[in-house]
Each structure stands twice: as C-alpha cells, then as structure tokens.
Amino acid sequence: MSEEEKAAVLIEALPYIQRFAGKIFVIKYGGSAMGERFTDVILDIIWLKQVGIHPVVVHGGGKEITAMLERLGHRAQFVEGLRVTDEAVMEVVEMVLSGAVNPRLVAAFNQHDGGAVGLSGVDGMLLEVAKKHHPAGDIGYVGEVVHVNTALIEGLLDRHLIPVIAPVGVDREGRRYNVNADEAAGAVAGALGAEKLFLITDVPGIVRRGPGGSEVVSKITAEEIRQLVESGEIYGGMIPKVKACLTALEAGAKHVHIINGEDPHALLLEVFTDRGIGTMVLPAGEGPE
Ligand SMILES: Nc1ncnc2c1ncn2[C@@H]1O[C@H](COP(=O)(O)OP(=O)(O)O)[C@@H](O)[C@H]1O
Ligand SMILES: CC(=O)N[C@@H](CCC(=O)OP(=O)(O)O)C(=O)O
C-alpha cells in the first residue's frame, strides 16, 4: 500500500474510530479459522485495542480437539454442532483448549505487545454453566452458560489487557463442562452489552442457494435463520453460531457479524469501512433493507 493509500484508509476510518473508542468488541476466533492468516488476525485485534476499542477474545479449537481424540483412538461425535462429551473426552477438551490453544494465542498476542491474559471459564467462575439438556438426548458434559463474571473481564479491560477466554465452564459443584465456543462468545457479548460480536470462521458468512448459485447473505433476520435451519441450508457448526448470534442480540449486544478469518483484514474492513463484509445478523424488529 502506498503512503497516499494508507492516508486514505485512515481518513475513512477516523469517524469509526471516534464512534467505537471505549466500546467492547467480543471476538470469537474459531479453531477452523486459525490458518495462514493467524498472525494477521492477532495484529488486527491488537490494532483495535491501540485505537481505544476494548477487544475480548473467546477462542475455539474444535478441530484440534478432534485431532487429539483421534490420536488417542477416540471417534468424535457431534449433535447439531455440539460435541458429545463423556468424562474422557472432557479431559481432552480441557487439555487442548486451556492447555494448548489458549496459551498459544496469548503468547502470539504478547509477542506483539498485545497485553493478553489467558483465562478459561473456570477462572474466577468466569463462565458459570449448567448441564445442557439437549432434545436429541444426553450429550454428556456439555454446558450452557447461566452466568458470566463480567466484573472480572471489565477489571482486565480497565488495565488495558486483552482477555483471551477458553470455552470451558464450571458449575457450583466444581464440575467442568465443555461449552461450544460460539455459545460462550454469545453469552459473554450479551452479558457485557458489547457493541459488536464477531464470529471469525472459515467461511465468508452464511451461504445460501440463490438463483445464480451459492451466495453469501450480507444481512439476515432471526426469522430467515429459523427457515434456513429448518430447510437444512444451515447445518452442523453453523447452527451454534447462528443461535449464539441471536442470544447475544437478545441479551444486549448491538451488532453481530460472521466473517472469514482467511479474508485479508476482514475484521478491520468490517469495523472501519462502510463496505460490509461477511454476514450481519439483524436484531429482532430490523428487517433487511
Ligand atoms: N449456510 C451455511 N453457510 C456457511 N457455512 C455453513 C452453513 N451451514 C453449515 N455451515 C458449516 O459451518 C462451518 C463453520 O462452523 P465450524 O466448522 O464449527 O467453524 P468454527 O470452528 O469457526 O466454529 C462451515 O465450515 C460450514 O461447513
Ligand atoms: C460443546 C462443544 O461442541 N464444544 C466445542 C468447543 C470448542 C469449539 O467450539 O471450537 P470451534 O469454535 O473451533 O468449533 C468442541 O468440543 O469442539
């Protein structure tokens, strides 16, 4: 980028920087999206912090959990995008999320002076959960977030730190549960009343069949989501994602976006330009344009 182009980008971004300074953005970084652009995503999040936004990161790691389970001779099993988690699987989930993915992310942030602090939902009862009762049957140690310790997150933000949260929850009896990372991020964004929730994944947004083939939906309502889940056009890992978007909006988050981690600077383009990228999920009452 030439100096003139950089200046033009900055001038375009200025009103957005002013609008979002001091606001909380919850960013869910999916395991599937931690690919070639990993460092770019980390640097973009640090950039948000440098311009006065408060990023809170919730990460996934589903693919890595599956790979580890396979190495140990287990077969991964999912029900509507949620991992069936018995005691042995839970041990691996916690090992991978809290023991490998979380410190790897924290180290990557701090290598660039990101001021990141790693936590799992167990720390300070950050994510208090109850066992999830799924209509399809017992899926084991899968938790549903019932309370978020927002004071702990806000305390870190006050100290200009980036909380990096592994989606492992805990109940009042001290049992740990596997929480889908999208759900965890949705709950955190809702509880904090975040300005924005970003779900960074490995697809460019919600894709649906259009007259000219598959296309990314740029804006979608809760009703359209319900229809696409029913018709099977939204399936698997996208199901917890869209549910998390709706929960976050209902609980108080203002805007929710699904973007592709492999798109160069998708996060910055979405925040600082008027070129919408990915899919924006609209709050109830707001229809598509
Ligand atoms: N309508 C849809 N549009 C886009 N992706 C979809 C859709 N329905 C299901 N998916 C699937 O959801 C996946 C994203 O979820 P997941 O693999 O859990 O990602 P992450 O690790 O980022 O949470 C996509 O790779 C795709 O296979
Ligand atoms: C209950 C449940 O499904 N938990 C997820 C937690 C990790 C996750 O959600 O990771 P991604 O965002 O990378 O998919 C799992 O075990 O895979």
From TrEMBL:
Catalysis performed (reactions): N-acetyl-L-glutamate + ATP = N-acetyl-L-glutamyl 5-phosphate + ADP
Keywords: Amino-acid biosynthesis, Arginine biosynthesis, ATP-binding, Cytoplasm, Kinase, Nucleotide-binding, Transferase
GO CC list: cytoplasm
GO molecular function: acetylglutamate kinase activity; ATP binding
Aspartate/glutamate/uridylate kinase domain segment(s): 23-260
Record-listed E.C. numbers: 2.7.2.8
Gene Ontology BP terms: L-arginine biosynthetic process via ornithine
Localization, UniProt: Cytoplasm
Pathway of action: Amino-acid biosynthesis; L-arginine biosynthesis; N(2)-acetyl-L-ornithine from L-glutamate: step 2/4
Signal peptide (residue range): none
SUPFAM superfamilies on file: Carbamate kinase-like
Residues marked Transition state stabilizer (site): 28, 241
Binding-site positions, substrate: 61-62, 83, 178
Family per record: Belongs to the acetylglutamate kinase family. ArgB subfamily.
Summary of the function given for this chain in its UniProt record: Catalyzes the ATP-dependent phosphorylation of N-acetyl-L-glutamate.
HAMAP family: ArgB (MF_00082)
Protein name (Swiss-Prot/TrEMBL): Acetylglutamate kinase
Organism annotation: Kyrpidia spormannii
